[in-house]
Design a protein that fits this description.
Blueprint lengths: L1 H6 L2 H5 L3 E4 L3 H10 L4 E4 L1 H25 L3 H9 L1 H5 L22 H9 L3 H18 L3 H11 L6 H11 L1 H9 L5 H16 L6 H12 L16 H5 L1
Parallel strand pairs: 1-2
Helix pairs in contact: 4-5, 4-8, 8-9
Length: 240
């Protein structure tokens, strides 16, 4: 709050039209105070992250049930191939026929996914619900996106209850995310790269050493004037 109030006048802050952010309630309250005329856009990265985390939590619960029942083979299948469940169905290979760990017969990745979701009806329903939501996400169909949520919110696995409530609470902001092409993807990538620099060096005792290393790695010697501003696209106009 102090940063924006001290560096930018209220008149300048009134000119801000859009702010892209995650679903943190504190940030949303701050944006309304600092940028009264701005529309909030939920970053699309965090929408997909919410799907993946929730579906993975459900997968973990189902997987542990098989461990408790001494069914080690299915438990190991869930544990090894969990990433396949988080992929879009069309991106899961259906032609990689061959030997796979923890399967006696030759099988494809698509068949592995079908095998895993058949182990639990709740997981199967959640998997295909997420696929429908991702289809609406890809086509910027925010009406269809929330139609799927409203139809499935009472029947889907309990892990999704909190996620869907959060989506419904922030419906307007998520509609903006699907309507416009703005995203914090580049910034999220920079943050992840800085974290990797810290991790590979086992941390830095001196902040200025870390800062210097980041500047070197990112090669921040170019002029900011070379950047090309991204044009905002309103997908709802094309859909209409």
């Amino acid at each position: 709050m102090d940063h924006f109030k001290k560096r930018y006048t209220f008149k300048d802050r009134l000119n801000v039209k859009m702010v892209c952010m995650d679903m943190n309630a504190g940030y949303m309250a701050m944006v309304k105070v600092l940028f009264p005329n701005a529309s909030v856009i939920i970053d699309r990265f965090h929408i997909i992250q919410a799907f993946n985390n929730t579906l993975n939590n459900l997968r973990t619960r189902v997987m542990r049930r098989f461990k408790d029942n001494d069914n080690d083979r299915i438990y190991k299948q869930f544990k090894r191939y969990w990433k396949l469940l988080l992929k879009r169905e069309d991106d899961v290979p259906s032609d990689d026929y061959g030997r796979k760990y923890h399967f006696k017969q030759w099988i494809t990745s698509r068949k592995i996914v079908e095998h895993l979701i058949k182990q639990d009806n709740g997981l199967k329903e959640a998997y295909y619900t997420v696929q429908m939501l991702l289809d609406a996400y890809d086509t910027h169909d925010f009406t269809g996106f929330f139609d799927v949520i409203n139809l499935s919110k009472t029947t889907i696995a309990e892990e999704f209850s909190a996620t869907f409530k959060t989506f419904i609470k922030n419906k307007k902001y998520i509609e903006n995310a699907l309507r416009y092409n703005l995203s914090n993807g580049p910034i999220e990538g920079i943050i992840n790269k800085v974290k990797n620099i810290k991790r590979t060096s086992y941390g830095y005792r001196n902040f200025f050493s870390l800062k210097a290393r980041v500047l070197i790695i990112f090669n921040l010697g170019y002029s900011n004037t070379d950047r090309i501003n991204k044009d905002v696209i309103d997908y709802s106009i094309n859909i209409a």
